[in-house]
Write a structure and sequence with these properties.
binds S-adenosylmethionine; SAM-dependent_MTases_sf; alpha/beta; Rossmann fold
């Protein structure tokens, strides 16, 4: 099997895992403040992005981009589950400058090269197999304008290599220290800042990384 086929196989499994989790989606809006309140690491790092043309990867039912509903920026919401994208289209009806795209779980094919000022992904990449993370980093490098930045919330869990992510704490994927940075460098992206964060009482289970495409 070639690496691309492996990534697509992993993406198909993720699509199945996240198609029917109504319990998650029904509750998710009630704790969106843990990402958007002023003093959270997420908000502090998000404030460094230029949101003029922003892609939200793995948007779910749109609770994060909804925080920007009154902003005049262009928002591109992407998710591997078509039902989530249909939900977002309904949710954002009447909100200007919003595009909602269902993707294949490995690339950003609907987004033009060098067109976005920023990309972010919260509470989703933590579950992605690292072969998918590499694909998305390569795609992030493609779609960002020179000088553009991405804010990615990903796993920092070093256990269970080759295993099922759903058997790990909080469904975190295997992502040993250093691997994310290695992939960023291979994708031609600079790692600007990383903050380790706890999740569900597990210290340093996750990492929030601000990365950038070098200015031309
Ligand atoms: C835990 S939910 C989080 C949704 C949203 N980020 C939020 O915080 O509300 C995980 C999301 O990742 C999406 N997802 C899973 N694998 C994906 C992939 N390979 N590419 C794009 N989206 C994916 C799922 O469909 C789901 O919407």
């Amino acid at each position: 099997m070639v690496a691309d086929d492996l990534a697509r196989q992993k993406a198909a499994a993720l699509r199945a895992d996240w198609t029917t989790d109504d319990q998650y989606y029904d509750n998710a809006d009630s704790w969106v403040g843990s990402f958007w309140a002023d003093q959270t690491p997420f908000r502090q790092m998000f404030n460094r992005l230029d949101p003029h043309v922003i892609v939200e990867l793995a948007c779910g039912r749109g609770r994060h981009s909804w925080q920007m509903k009154d902003w005049s920026n262009r928002k591109i919401l992407i998710d591997v589950v078509p039902e989530n994208i249909e939900f977002c289209r309904r949710r954002f009806t009447g909100v200007a400058n919003v595009e909602c795209l269902a993707n294949n779980g490995v690339d950003l094919a609907g987004v033009e090269t060098a067109s976005a000022t920023a990309l972010f992904c919260y509470d989703a990449m933590v579950h992605f197999d690292h072969v998918i993370v590499l694909q998305y980093l390569l795609e992030t490098a493609r779609i960002l304008k020179p000088g553009g930045q991405a804010l990615l919330h990903h796993s920092n869990y070093p256990g269970n290599p080759g295993g099922d992510y759903k058997t790990n704490p909080h469904w975190r994927a295997f992502m040993p220290g250093g691997l994310f940075v290695d992939y960023c460098r291979k994708a031609g992206l600079d790692v600007i800042e990383q903050r380790l964060i706890g999740w569900g009482g597990e210290p340093a289970l996750d990492c929030v990384s601000l990365i950038g495409k070098p200015a031309a």
